[in-house]
Amino acid sequence: MKLQHMQSCVALLFAIAGLTQGVAAKDNEDENDLEHWLPLAQQGDPSAQLKVGLIYDNGEGVPIDDVVAIRWYRLAADQGNVAAQYNIGLMYDYGEGVPVDDAEAIRWYRLAADQGHASAQLNLGVMYDTGEGVPENNAEAIKWYRLAADQGTASAQNNLGVMYDNGEGMPVDDVEAIRWYRLAADQEYASAQLNLGLMYDNGEGVPENNAEAIKWYRLAADQGDATAQLNLALMYDDGEGVPVDDVEAIKWYHLAGDQGNVSAQHNLALMYDMGEGVPIDDAEAIRWYRRAAEQGYAPSQQNLGAMYYNGEGTKKNYVRAHLWFSLAADQGSEEGKNNRDIAEEQMTRKKIKEAQALAKRCTESNYQECD
């Protein structure tokens, strides 16, 4: 009996791209001559103290020394230097020169944010949004995102769009979400371009428009956004807004799959499995099914099991077939469960126990020991 593969491609990913992480780049200046800045810093000049901190932070002509850097930042920050306050916040946020301390990071971000520092406002918004160092508070997150967004910070504009999109801290408002996504997308911010593409794809806040969706997906995909690459591939695969083009679909599946996108990996395996846009290549199908299966993706686990059961691209191996069917079944796959039962009809009790032990080892090792 030859087992069939699941043939349907994964549907479009309609989940909104995640919140942008806070800005991590430290404020800097052009001049990096320690001999010039150190005497001024020692005389108490806060701008010079900031600069000496940056020199040690970035290793400009000296070995990187985060401990020395934060000491100079603190001297400048205590005099109200906004860039130094922000940089200290980053040091506590990322554990550079000090242990990670979210509460201290928030304290310094707030001092800078209260002086209008846009990146500090963004990062403070992220802390409230994710509940790092403070109780999660959507209203406070929105407040700080808006202040940064009003200064043109693209990541804050995107995050504010996400809040309106998901109805976090406010009623869902697709029109307002689109407005903020567009402001960020027009600054070539990839996550916002993806999100704007999704709004046109789903007809949320705007009439459904595949051509506009493709436009924004492509802009994000060209910047390397894996979800946009996947969605663009699916548009070509399904002929939505463009003629069906398997070759173009494969191109974008490859790009997303190479970044670890599990849906792209599965769909690419299907293309090689079914010979769509490429000659049938069972070995290549196995390779891509395996990559997705090792991320716990049940449809790929099921199809990989079928490859081993049927001896497609590899020698028949009922133990490995049973392994992958079992892993899919453990995630609720009825097809995996049924195929595991079929495989057992071809196996001795000893081989079944071997397969069960292998599945246990595979799971416990987080898919590192599956052979």
Question: Can you walk through the features of this model?
Answer:
This protein has a domain at 1-16 and 269-371: Serine Threonine Protein Phosphatase 5, Tetratricopeptide repeat (Alpha Horseshoe). The radius of gyration is 26 Å and the shape is globular. By secondary structure, the chain is mostly helical. Helix 8 runs antiparallel to helix 9, helix 15 runs antiparallel to helix 16 and helix 17 (318-330) runs antiparallel to helix 18. The two termini are 24 Å apart. The chain contains 19 helices and no strands.
Question: What tags apply to this protein structure?
Answer:
371 residues; mainly alpha; Serine Threonine Protein Phosphatase 5, Tetratricopeptide repeat; 19 helices; 64% helix; globular; disordered N terminus
Using only CA atoms, what is the Rg? 26 Å
Mean pLDDT reading: 92
Text of the CATH class of one domain: Mainly Alpha
Biggest pleated-sheet summary: none
Share of helix, binned: 55-70%
Shape: globular
CATH fold-type name of one domain: Serine Threonine Protein Phosphatase 5, Tetratricopeptide repeat
CATH superfamily of one domain: Tetratricopeptide repeat domain
Calculate the terminal CA-CA distance, rounded to whole Å. Answer: 24 Å
Q: How many β-strand runs? A: 0
Unreliable spans:
1-20
With helices defined by DSSP (H or I, 4 residues minimum), what is the helix count?
19
Strand portion: under 5%
What oligomeric state do these chains adopt?
A: single chain
CATH architecture assignment name of one domain: Alpha Horseshoe
String of helices and strands:
HHHHHHHHHHHHHHHHHHH
Give the structural class.
Answer: mainly alpha
